[in-house]
Design goal:
The structure holds two protein chains of two kinds. Chain A is mainly beta. Chain A contains three helices and 24 strands. The radius of gyration of chain A is 21 Å and the shape is globular. By secondary structure, chain B is mainly alpha-helical. Classes of the chains: A mainly beta, B mainly alpha. Chains A and B meet through helix 1 of A and helix 1, helix 2, helix 3 and helix 4 of B.
């Protein structure tokens, strides 16, 4: 067993060590595992106030997928690992939720193209494809690979007829044709340690991937951008505690950090930190374990899966806190 | 300046672990081999108290829950999955009042501890639990009940005896089986592995 022993260091040694930490702070701060040596871009933590979890319409919401019609965002699909369901939420009233179907297993990531809904099923290690019929939505197909996947998130580029699955078991991104044939694996050439989420930017044929890093080996959490062939375009570390869901717009990356309780915003091309949405807490509009995000480019509304509160939160552009305020 | 240089040279020669250990709280305790300090704590830049990689300074139970579920939750990297113990989220007319038991109310995330029988609890289960309505209770959780050979292994979830020190029965006062007193039925799959049906990933609901 790994052990952290109790130490009763002499006072003089303790003082020396404290001096050392001051002298060496430039080096030592780089040892911060999860934050990559940077101060996290979080607002002042709440102190004193008791946090109370109130139940929302979901039990343990995990994945979110925006579904667009010609007129704009039509609805949001949400997986619920607690209820083991897929539900449909009204973007105007996110607490207005309609349960669509039960999942035979633990649902994680979700995406939809015109005809089908793709659901990551952790229990089965598969991606399950549902389609509508007279009897309602039914599973049409189950896509499996040689080894069971942990399908943390799914993104679809219907135009390219491909979908992307973040596989937390193999620690890679798998690229499938819409018919379910595995065509490529993006492993980041060793830069993916614990990938959590994927989002596509179809116009530039690129994907954004969040990665929790590996605290045991000191590999920092990151958000990375790849082109469809798997060539890395960006790797941004620092400032994260537990990056999870990611969404992209024409110019920005939105990363939900589950432990900071914020959605961090970065320039999509340079990775520059721009600011954040939300703050840690249990009050309305605050975030307690946010684990996925969706962005509506037309209205600039940001939808956040607030897991521990069992809710979806909606942020308007005016809720954005620029970097100079949050850092 | 000379003193600073001396200190820097002297300290750079010290083993890093020695420096780190002296800076850690003196109450640091043994750690389960599957866990690593850095899974939950950051020595530098941690936003939360006790150097946790988490923002809250307000509520240890809830703070720990987030850190636990970061790995053991739905899309976490741990192979052992879990969620908190609540009413069945799919039950629209629950039999029990609303309750919510979080991770560290049953587990110590650091290591297994000795119980009141001088055995050692497994699965990081605490040797004593402050129950919602029955005060502080001793817990003996040395096995997961029926083993693979079908043999009963005592000191598990609910042995069906009259000690009521199993991790499941210690709190229960309103369930159909295995209350924490002599009342009711104590024969329901006594000594077996409760979580085979009442899964930890389903909040212990069936």
């Amino acid at each position: 067993m790994g052990q952290v022993k109790t130490h009763g260091s002499p006072l003089w040694l303790l003082l020396l060590m404290m001096s050392a930490s001051l002298l060496c702070c430039g080096t030592a701060s780089a040892m911060g595992m999860s934050f990559g040596g940077q101060t996290p871009p979080t607002s002042e933590p709440a102190t004193g106030a008791a946090l109370k979890i109130t139940s929302g319409p979901f039990s343990s919401p995990v994945g979110i997928a925006p579904v667009f019609a010609r007129s704009g965002l039509s609805y949001l699909l949400v997986t619920d690992a607690g209820k083991r369901t897929v539900s449909k939420a009204d973007p105007q009233h996110p607490d207005n939720v309609e349960e669509l179907f039960k999942v035979d297993g633990l649902p994680l990531g979700i995406a939809q193209d015109r005809r089908f809904i793709y659901v990551g099923n952790r229990s089965e290690g598969s991606v399950d494809i549902y389609h509508g019929s007279r009897k309602g939505l039914r599973m049409a197909r189950r896509i499996k690979t040689d080894e069971p996947m942990q399908p943390n998130d799914i993104a679809i580029d219907a135009g390219a007829r491909q979908f992307f699955v973040v596989d937390g078991a193999a620690n890679d991104v798998k690229v499938f044709t819409l018919s379910g044939r595995l065509v490529r694996t993006i492993d980041g050439f060793g830069d993916l340690f614990d990938p959590k989420s994927v989002a596509i930017h179809a116009k530039s044929r690129s994907i954004a991937v969040t990665d929790a890093g590996d605290p045991k080996t000191g590999m920092p959490a990151s958000v990375q951008v790849y082109d469809y062939s798997g060539r890395q375009l960006l790797r941004k570390t620092g400032g994260f505690s537990a990056p999870r869901g990611v969404a992209v717009s024409a110019d920005r990356l939105f990363v939900a950090d589950a432990l900071l309780g914020q959605v961090l915003v970065f320039d999509r091309k340079t990775g520059e930190y721009l600011g954040a949405f939300g703050s840690f807490g249990t009050d309305p509009g605050q975030l307690l374990f946010p684990i996925d995000v969706a962005f509506d480019e037309k209205t600039e509304a940001l939808y956040v899966v607030n897991n521990r509160m069992g809710r979806l939160e909606t942020f308007a552009p005016t809720d954005f806190q620029p970097a100079e305020v949050t850092q | 300046m000379k003193i600073s240089l001396f200190l820097a040279r002297f300290l750079s020669a010290l083993p890093i672990a020695m420096v780190l250990s002296s800076m850690l709280p003196s109450s640091a305790i043994a750690l389960l081999s599957a866990h690593d300090c850095a899974d939950c704590h950051s020595l530098h830049g941690a936003p939360g108290f006790t150097l946790l990689n988490q923002t809250s300074q307000a509520d240890l139970v809830l703070t720990a829950e987030l850190v636990c579920l970061n790995c053991h939750g739905p899309s976490g990297s741990a192979t052992t999955m879990a969620t908190v113990h609540t009413n069945d989220p799919n039950d629209k007319t629950p039999d029990y009042p609303t309750f919510r038991i979080s991770c560290i109310e049953c587990h110590d995330p650091h290591d297994n501890q000795d119980n009141y029988l001088s055995g050692q609890n497994i699965k990081l289960v605490l040797p004593q639990i402050e129950t919602p309505s029955s005060g502080l209770r001793d817990i003996a959780f040395e096995s997961r009940g029926t083993n693979n050979a079908g043999e009963l292994a005592l000191h598990s979830f609910a042995d069906g005896d009259s000690t009521y020190d199993g991790i499941c029965e210690a709190c229960h006062t309103a369930t159909n089986h295995h209350l924490n007193n002599a009342a009711g039925d104590h024969s329901h799959h006594a000594g077996e592995t409760c979580t085979r049906c009442h899964d930890h990933t389903d909040a212990f609901n069936q």
